[in-house]
Structures are given as C-alpha cells and as structure tokens.
Ring-1,2-phenylacetyl-CoA epoxidase subunit PaaB (Blastococcus saxobsidens), 122 residues
Amino acid sequence: MTADLTAEGGRSTPSPPPLASSGRASGRGRRDWPLYEVFVRGKRGLNHVHVGSLHAADDEMAVHAARDVYTRRNEGVSIWVVKAADITASSPDEKDPMFAPSGDKVYRHPTFYEIPDGVPHM
C-alpha cells in the first residue's frame, strides 16, 4: 500500500469524486453550458435589473441557480434568465445614428405636458 505524499512530505487528502451529471447536460461538460444573463426585480423596484451572469445546462437550471446565487436574502420578487447568445444589442458607438433621429421629433418628448404631483414614477 502506497501513501500519496505532497511536495512538503505530508499526506495528501484524496480529491472528491467528480459531480454526477443530472442528465440535463447531455454529456457536455460544465464549461460547455450556455451563459445566461440574470435580471432580478426587487421588492421595491419597478424594473428588472441586470445582476450578473451564470452558466447552466438548461433554462430551468438557470432559474434555480439564479435564485440561489442572486436572491439569497429574499430581495427579489421576479427573476428573468436569458441566454446571452439570444441577446442582440446596439453598440455604444452607434449612439448617434441610432438615437439622433428622435431629437428632431419634439412630439416624442413630454415637455408639453404638466405632470400632476400625485403621479409617481414618471
């Protein structure tokens, strides 16, 4: 019987066995799982806010992992997970051509309306 020794001469602890596959990963390793972007709506908030990213084997696993990682203190009331590959976004370099056309359409800006004091979040 041989003992595993570390570089310092002490005994090494055996490494834990690899995690069992849940069957959802379809034989893929964790590094191959798709990246999901996570959005959480807080109890007092009106909008979902991007809180981070995670890798998961499927959509259901992403929701559960997002709940465990990003709402540990019960601060959320709703979670959205979106595959990062499914997100299409404009580039900050496209700001002028993308948003400049609305500048000449004054009717799109609510400068002509008085907002009553009793209307919140406007």
Residues 1-25 have pLDDT under 50 and may be disordered. Residues 110 and 122 are 10 Å apart (CA to CA). Helices lie at 59-70, 95-99. Residues 30-112 form a domain with the Ubiquitin-like (UB roll) fold (CATH 3.10.20.520).
